[in-house]
Write a structure and sequence with these properties.
Blueprint (H helix, E strand, L loop, with lengths): L10 E5 L3 H13 L4 E5 L5 H8 L3 E5 L7 H8 L10 E5 L4 H10 L3 E4 L4 H58 L5 H15 L4 H10 L12 H4 L7 H8 L1 H8 L6 H12 L20 H15 L11 H10 L7 H9 L1 H10 L12 H4 L14
Parallel strand pairs: 1-2, 1-3, 3-4, 4-5
Helix pairs in contact: 6-7, 6-12, 6-15, 7-11, 10-11, 11-12
C-alpha cells in the first residue's frame, strides 16, 4: 500500500520491552514510508520522552516490567492537555476484557500479536490521519480564538473611546475643565482598589465613572451655565440630571451600563440621607455611588466652575473631613486620606491648571496619622 505523503513526517514512538518486536515493527513502518520512528524498551522513560517528542502516534505494549501499558496511559493523561491520546496498544493476549480495558484507559485502537503487516499499516495510517485532523482543528480553533480576542479588544477600545468622547462632550457643555472625568475616574478606581474591588470591577469603575454627569445633557443651558446661585426651582431642575442619566443608561443587560447607571443615579446621595434624588442613607447607597460621589466633590471643589473659583488643597481637604459621617461614608473618607499621596499624584498628572502646593504641616492640620508620606510632592 502507498503512504499518503502527509503522513511520512509523522512522529511515531514505539514502547515495547521485547527488542525483536520493536525491530519487526520498525521494519514494517520504514518499508511503509514512515521516516521519524523512535523506540524504547524501558516504560519508565515514556513520560519524559513523550513530553519532549510530542508524537503523532504511540505504539504501546501492555505487558512490560516496571510499568505496564495501563500505568503509562494513566501518566500520559496528565500531559495531553486536549485529552486526545494517539495510542495504538499491542498485546499478545486475546482476551476481550484486556481489549476493552485498554480502550477504556485511553487507547484509540488495539492490535493483537502477531500482527499482519498490511493491517498494521492501515490501522496506523488511520490513527495518524485522525491525529493530524485533530491537530488542524485545534490549531484553527486557536487562530479563531486569537482573532476573536483581537476583535473583542478592538471593540472594547472603541467602546471606551466613545465613552470618553461622550463624557467630554458633557464637560464641554458644562464648561468644566477638560480632564475632570479623567481625574474623577482615576480617583474612584484608586479608592475602589483599596476597598477590595476585583480587577474586572476596577476596569468598569474606571470606564463607567466618567458618565456620572451624562444626565446634564438634559439640563437647559440657562441653568447649567448660570454663573450665580440657582433659584430653588432651578436647583430642582438641576438635580434631575441624576435620574436623566440613569434613564439614558438603563434598559440594557450590560453589566457595565448597569454600573454606569448606578453611578449616575446615586453619586449625589449623602451618607446622612440628605442627598438626592432618593434621600438614600448609609449603606443604602451603592458602594460605587459613595466612592464616585466623594471623588466628584473633591475634584469639583479644587477646580473652577461657572459659579465659583477653585478652592485650595487645604480648603478642599478640610471640607472633605468635615463631611465625614454626614456627606460621606466615614470609612471611605479615612481611606481617601490614607491614599492622599496617590490621589494628589493623580491630581497633578491630569491637572489642566497650575501645580498644586501642599502645606508642610498638612498631616497635623487634618489630624492624619503620621504614616502618610509627603515625599515627592511640592511643599
Amino acid at each position: 500500500m502507498s503512504l499518503d505523503s502527509r503522513f511520512a513526517s509523522a512522529k511515531i514512538l514505539i514502547v515495547d520491552d521485547q527488542v525483536m518486536s520493536i525491530r519487526l515493527l520498525e521494519e514494517i513502518l520504514r518499508k511503509g514510508g514512515y521516516r521519524h520512528i523512535t523506540s524504547i524498551s524501558d516504560s519508565r522513560e515514556v513520560r519524559a520522552l513523550y513530553e519532549r517528542m510530542a508524537p503523532d502516534l504511540l505504539v504501546l505494549d501492555l505487558n512490560m516490567p516496571y510499568m505496564d501499558g495501563f500505568k503509562v496511559m494513566e501518566q500520559l493523561k496528565f500531559i495531553e492537555e486536549d485529552g486526545y491520546l494517539p495510542i495504538l496498544v499491542i498485546s499478545g493476549e486475546e482476551s476481550p476484557e484486556i481489549r476493552f480495558n485498554a480502550l477504556e484507559a485511553g487507547a484509540k485502537d488495539f492490535l493483537h500479536k502477531p500482527y499482519d503487516r498490511v493491517e498494521v499499516l492501515l490501522r496506523i495510517s488511520n490513527l495518524i490521519e485522525v491525529r493530524m485532523l485533530h491537530n488542524e482543528i485545534r490549531d484553527q480553533n486557536k487562530i479563531l480564538e486569537q482573532k476573536v480576542q483581537e476583535r473583542t479588544q478592538a471593540l472594547y477600545a472603541t467602546q471606551l473611546d466613545v465613552i470618553e468622547r461622550l463624557s467630554r462632550a458633557v464637560e464641554f457643555r458644562d464648561l468644566e475643565t477638560g480632564l475632570h472625568t479623567s481625574r474623577m475616574s482615576h480617583y474612584s478606581a484608586c479608592i475602589a482598589k483599596a476597598v477590595g474591588f476585583s480587577v474586572e470591577d476596577l476596569e468598569m469603575v474606571l470606564a463607567a465613572s466618567p458618565l456620572h454627569d451624562i444626565g446634564k445633557i438634559g439640563i437647559p443651558d440657562s441653568i447649567l451655565l448660570k454663573p450665580g446661585k440657582l433659584s430653588p426651582e432651578e436647583w430642582e431642575v438641576m438635580k434631575t440630571h441624576t435620574t436623566i442619566g440613569a434613564e439614558l443608561l438603563s434598559g440594557s443587560d450590560s453589566k457595565f451600563l448597569h454600573l454606569a447607571g448606578e453611578i449616575a443615579l446615586t453619586h449625589h446621595e449623602k451618607w446622612d440621607g440628605t442627598g438626592y434624588p432618593h434621600n438614600l442613607q448609609g449603606e443604602e447607597i451603592p458602594l460605587v455611588g459613595r466612592i464616585c460621589g466623594l471623588c466628584d466633590v473633591f475634584d469639583a471643589l479644587m477646580n473652577k466652575r461657572p459659579y465659583k473659583n477653585a478652592w485650595t488643597v487645604v480648603e478642599t481637604l478640610d471640607e472633605i473631613k468635615k463631611g465625614r459621617g454626614f456627606h460621606f461614608d466615614p470609612r471611605l473618607v479615612d481611606c481617601f486620606f490614607d491614599l492622599l499621596p496617590e490621589i494628589l499624584n493623580i491630581k497633578e498628572k491630569y491637572d489642566d491648571e497650575e501645580q498644586i502646593e501642599i502645606p508642610k504641616d498638612f498631616k497635623k492640620t487634618f489630624g492624619l496619622s503620621g504614616n502618610i508620606p509627603v515625599d515627592g510632592y511640592q511643599e
